[in-house]
């Protein structure tokens, strides 16, 4: 059965009721670390450890992500009245690299309202924005506040990282632990710049 715009808007409105701004999301992740816990129903040791690692990653990106003057102008000059809804979970490695950068961009424009929602608490919303049939996160939904329509979606990874993943999967079938380490190194070297460029394209 086809989902209508009215249905999509109802699902979005419902998810926003339990959404967090970035500061509250960061506070939640830090509290989860203190409580030796994680978001979502799966409280496995590995996901709890990923949450702890991601808290450190986000702290680092919050301090170190830099946006060039040229990119700042491109962001602040955009005509935007949007809500950016990001599906995430505290244990997600890509989210820890991408969301702090999304926040830095959103902070520069008063017309962007960034809201974070948990994937496993918002299954209906997640099912509308699958990536190749999978519930990959983080996923940014670009919602226009005036027309009440979804303009686009973005994620789970920046464009260059997506190419790396797709090429590796095409050749090897699945992502190895070694490749995942290579991907982490790519994120650390890129310093959020690919995400910034992608988001500028999204709002222009």
Automatic annotation (TrEMBL):
**What's the protein name?**
Thioredoxin family protein
Give the species.
Mesoflavibacter profundi
Organism classification, top ranks?
Answer: Bacteria, Pseudomonadati, Bacteroidota, Flavobacteriia, Flavobacteriales
UniProt cross-references to Pfam families, sorted A to Z: Thioredoxin_9
Q: Which domain of life is it from?
A: Bacteria
SUPFAM superfamilies the record matches:
Thioredoxin-like (SSF52833)
